[in-house]
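This entry is listed as follows:

___
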Amino acid sequence: MRFAVTTALLLATAVAPLRAQHADVIRTARDAGQFATLLAAVEAAGLTSTLRGDGPFTVFAPTDEAFRKLPAGTVENLLKPENRDQLRAVLLYHVVPGRVPASAARELTRATTVEGRAIRIAASGNALRINNSTVVKADVGASNGVIHVIDAVLMPTDAPASGHGASNSGATPSGTSSQSARGLITLAITRGAPLYNNGQPAATIAVYEVAARGVLALPNGVPMAARARLEQGLRDADRTREEDDRAWVLREALDDAARLIDGRRMMSVNDR
């Protein structure tokens, strides 16, 4: 069965990378000249430095024309300071951790974003669709990731439910939310720790963040204490300036959440 959802994307960096570029995704988008609205939104949301980090990131980038298709006033409303959290959610819904070329994306049916919810992926002939958008230009290489240009803005409200989909032939399907959460945390640490040890804290942060948000997006079954610990870890990481420290803040939150999940699972077994 095909890899799907977060597990596939935490391992996406194992796919042969595109030819390296000198400019990061922000500079690459700016040089393209058709992403002024997207870049303004990224700046307003305080995500510019994040997307200039080591990554790698896969960005589904709506063009200026795509933003003009939104209902009148939508962009202006999102750019208001009081709606910054909502704006960040919309933008992070366009970002997937790892470098995922179109050839790899075509093998998926869904993928979990950094925002935490999943996007739908459908390949038909030469067309590649992401939710209700179409990729109009794929595999625009950047030094810290890859950009796929899309013709419509993705909205988290259109996200499919998390926790379903095919499993990797080498992985064991999870039967409960707590098992899925524990497996996701284990995979994130297995993937993130070597990145950190190889001097890539930004990539480690991306992996840990998507794992934490992926766990929080799971349906009921994950202990509330574990959810609260991950939420606190994400808030603390957002306030931490140094990348090394941010990586450790998130790692400790994941470790604590894993222990809380393991404790709940052990109690459930003993209660039978």
Remarks:
- The chain has two domains: 5-158, 177-271.
- The domain at 5-158 is CATH 2.30.180.10 (FAS1 domain).
- The two ends are 33 Å apart (CA to CA).
